[in-house]
Amino acid sequence: MSEVKLKPCPFCGGEALVTSASGAFGNWYLITCASCKNATHVHPTLGDAARAWNRRVYDERD
Ligand SMILES: [Zn+2]
């Protein structure tokens, strides 16, 4: 397993938190800011969620 590194929140500099769960669509992950609650979209793997967070694309619209 490669280590996942998360950058601080680009909006407030807050700590990035990983949220994961499993449900009807399988496992999913998203990254949430501990301070301002900004979040990525839901991703099927932690790597994808981390990549989205680190690229700061979480505010893009699908
Ligand atoms: Zn933040």
Briefly say what this structure is:
The protein has 62 residues and is of the alpha+beta class. Helices cover 16% and strands 26% of the residues. It has one helix at residues 46-55, and strands at residues 16-23, 26-33.
Describe the structure.
With 62 residues, the chain is an alpha+beta fold. The protein has one domain. Helix content is 16%, strand content 26%. It contains 1 helix and 2 strands. It has one helix at residues 46-55, and strands at residues 16-23, 26-33. It has a two-stranded antiparallel sheet. Strand 1 and strand 2 (26-33) form a beta hairpin. It is globular, with a radius of gyration of 11 Å. The mean pLDDT is 86. Zinc ion binds next to loops.
How many individual helices? 1
Beta-strand proportion? 25-35%
Q: Give the uncertain stretches in residue-range form.
A: none
Quick one: how many beta strands?
2
As for the number of domains, it is 1
Largest sheet features: 2 strands, antiparallel
- What general outline do the C-alpha atoms trace? globular
| Average of pLDDT | 86
Name the ligand types.
Answer: zinc ion
* Span between termini: 29 Å
Helix content: 10-25%
- Please provide the ordered H/E string of secondary-structure elements: EEH
Structural class: alpha+beta
Cα radius of gyration in angstroms? 11 Å
Major sheet: order of its strands?
1-2
